[in-house]
Design goal:
The protein has 90 residues and is mostly helical. It is built from two helices and no strands.
C-alpha cells in the first residue's frame, strides 16, 4: 500500500492530543456560559420581581416568598460553582 494511504491515519494519531484539548476547552466554555446564563436569568427574574412589587402588581408576602426562592437559587449556584472549583483544584 502506498504511503499516502497511511498518512491520514498517522496525522490523526499525531494531532489527537491537540484535538482532545480543543474539545475539552469547548466543553469548559459551554459549561461556563450555561452557568453564567443561569445566574443572569435568576438575577433578571429578581429584578423583574422587584419592579413588579414596586409598581404594586404583587403583594408583599408573595414578593418576599419569591424573593427568598430566587436568592436561595442564586446562592445554591454560587455554592455549587465554588465547590466545583475546589474539587477541580484537588
Amino acid at each position: 500500500m502506498p504511503f499516502t494511504f497511511y498518512l491520514p491515519m498517522l496525522l490523526k494519531l499525531i494531532f489527537a492530543p491537540v484535538t482532545g484539548i480543543g474539545w475539552i476547552a469547548e466543553q469548559i466554555q459551554e459549561r461556563a456560559e450555561a452557568e453564567l446564563d443561569d445566574t443572569e436569568n435568576l438575577s433578571k427574574r429578581l429584578l423583574a420581581l422587584q419592579l413588579a412589587f414596586d409598581m404594586g402588581d404583587i403583594p408583599e408576602d408573595e414578593f418576599e416568598a419569591q424573593e427568598e426562592e430566587l436568592l436561595l437559587a442564586i446562592q445554591a449556584l454560587e455554592d455549587q460553582r465554588a465547590a466545583d472549583m475546589l474539587q477541580s483544584m484537588a
